[in-house]
Design a protein that fits this description.
Elements: H1 7-21, H2 36-44, H3 50-68, H4 71-78, H5 84-117, H6 124-136
Length: 137
């Protein structure tokens, strides 16, 4: 268990973010991003504490930021004229901006999963989809 996160939760989250990385510009396999929410939900159903939810959100953010948005440093350096160290620092700051949506999702999924399970089955996917989209945009 990495940082007291259940192994299954970590594996589901890493698989989800790994799939999500392939949807970004360099690879352009955008259809593979559709099932990512299911992977994140499977991970969120495995966690037991708020601390685990926040740590899992941070791990997913770091992987997503440096895997999916690797091109940001290159574009800032080549087209923006920034030196590489500055471009990498700005990329790191961008990663901090991305952090709240993943952390918020895993935290809210952990806190609300019991309430969502009380909803009729037809409304559960709608709720999770609306939560994901509202945090992404």
């Amino acid at each position: 268990m990495l940082l007291s996160i259940p192994r299954n939760a970590l594996l589901w989250a890493i698989a989800g973010v790994g799939i999500e990385i392939f949807a970004y510009p360099r690879w352009s396999f955008f259809p593979v991003a559709y099932p990512v929410l299911a992977f994140y939900l499977m991970a969120s159903y495995q966690i037991k504490t708020i601390r685990q939810a926040l740590i899992l959100g941070a791990i997913v953010t770091l992987i997503a930021a440096f895997g999916a948005f690797h091109w940001i440093s290159f574009v800032m350096s080549e087209m923006g004229g920034f030196p590489w160290p500055v471009a990498v620092l700005i990329h790191a700051a961008f990663s901090l901006i991305c952090l709240p949506n993943f952390n918020a999702f895993f935290l809210l999924a952990f806190l609300w999963k019991a309430r969502v399970e009380a909803l009729p089955l037809a409304f559960r996917p709608l709720f999770w989809s609306l939560l994901w989209v509202s945090l992404e945009f």
